[in-house]
Amino acid sequence: MKLLNFITLFVLVVGSTAFAAADPNAAAPVWEKSVVKIEVTRNIYDYYQPWNRRNDRATKFGLVVGDRQILATAQDLSDRTLVRLQKGGRGRWTNAKVEWIDYHANLALLTAADAAFWTDLRPANLSGQPPAEGAALQIIRWREGKLENRSADFTQYAVRPSEFSSISHVQLEMDSEIQGVGLGEPVVAKSNVVGIVASQRGRTCKVIPASFIRTILTARAAGNQRGLGYFHFYWQRAENPASLAHLRLPGEPRGVLVINVPERPDDGEQVLQPHDIILQIDGFDVDMQGDYSDPDYGALMLENLSSRGKWAGDEVKMKIWRDGQPLEVTYRLPKYEFAHSLVPAGVFDQPPDYLIVGGLVFQPLTVPYLQRWGAEWERRAPFRFTYYTGEEATRDQAGIVILSQVLPDAFNLGYQEQRGFAVDKVNGKRVTSLAELRDALKQPKDNFHIIDFLPNESLQRIVLAAGDPEREATQRILERFGIKEAVQITPKTAATK
Question: Domain coordinates of the chain in residue numbers?
Fold first, then answer.
């Protein structure tokens, strides 16, 4: 089992003004002053033709949480060109600005400069305590100018992946008959907000808990915004008695078995080794399922201990079993970035990168590229690509460049049907990024470009004429297909959070 990652989160102060107690079934007089609509105009990029884009408009919901501060999910806020706010479910729209956004946590904070917009709006109270089992939960949203209020049933707390990142964190799961939510709708219990809805699958809604959000906001207020850390290792359940006996662990089966310790992204000290058994983290015993008993949420997966009052760079005390002996180690939490994965899970606020040479279109392999196969891309996309999504980037292999398609021209005659191959070398140079590919193309071999693909690909090599024939063909293709530039590479310094 792969250790699920946790990442960086940045925050602003939350107002603590609470509402007077109110019947959630008659919540409109209270919540209409705290729930607002958000309209986002944004660019949508085509990862099959990465030089193309279109405009899109999305509507979602926000929650007033402090002095001119509105909490929302990060969904639909990427590549934005205009953001507007509306209160009362109808009427005038007010221009807004995104002050902070964290795509890993699926959270954002918005504000508006127009003082009139804030008149009569009131900050909601983000509950500091998780709702008790069986609590009456309500989902609040504006619908056709009216405040809709629908009931939901609490199911459980669990550590689940965020919507737009491979990072996982504690989330509230609940069941409701409501349809079409997952756009930041507040979930309330009496006068308190207990979370905001992040997604819906069937009747099941995933909710970012208010207690988790408050932790983030409090950290930002204190200036402790180093971001969340994560456990950068792989583990499996300690369920095999033979394995535990081989490792000479006495007593009942417990803990988890470390099976792989990849190269750390921050060059920090490696304190864990394969075949270590992790027995305790930060004072919490780890059972054979990989869970610990959280005083707030109950049984949770151990990954949550990397964010429970901890931030990137913080130290976590662990008790482990190694070579037949107990041992205590101090693990320093690294900070997560999308680039830590061989196939980045997210590409936000920038157009897709690509490079065209003689009609051959090269792109970095990313999850947004794979998502062009639809909602079930993990099953429908080529296995040779999805296989890499679970791999960590390393110094030697920072990413994967693929030949995504060939735009036909007499220059590339015979290669028009070739697509979907991972590049190994170009002109004898190892290629793991488009920048490396661009540099390698500057050094042709005997006036030819030699493009080698990974050994497991069915196509092993393409040879193209270099120099004037290549440049002329590239220019013809750009003009024929209405493409402005042959190369689009976002500098690393412009990469998203």
Answer: 24-221, 234-332, 341-494
